[in-house]
């Protein structure tokens, strides 16, 4: 395997730094989701399809504003929301 050029190594280091920030932001978002879950009373409130659509619409618009593919951002957020919904449902002690 040939070593990466200095420019490629620098770009990879930049990506690594971005990944650190993204994971830190995900941790922050998850902490807020846990706090939100305390205010929900049942599975319907956890699933909140209207809120999910509101978030998806908002992040699609943000993606457009940043010039990145809105479909990609929507897929990422739908996966994130689905996984966090499962965490919330587990917190309710579902069978």
Automatic annotation (TrEMBL):
Keywords: Isomerase. Residues 2-92 form the Chorismate mutase domain. Pfam families: CM_2 (PF01817). The keyword Repeat does not apply. PANTHER family: CHORISMATE MUTASE. This is Chorismate mutase domain-containing protein.
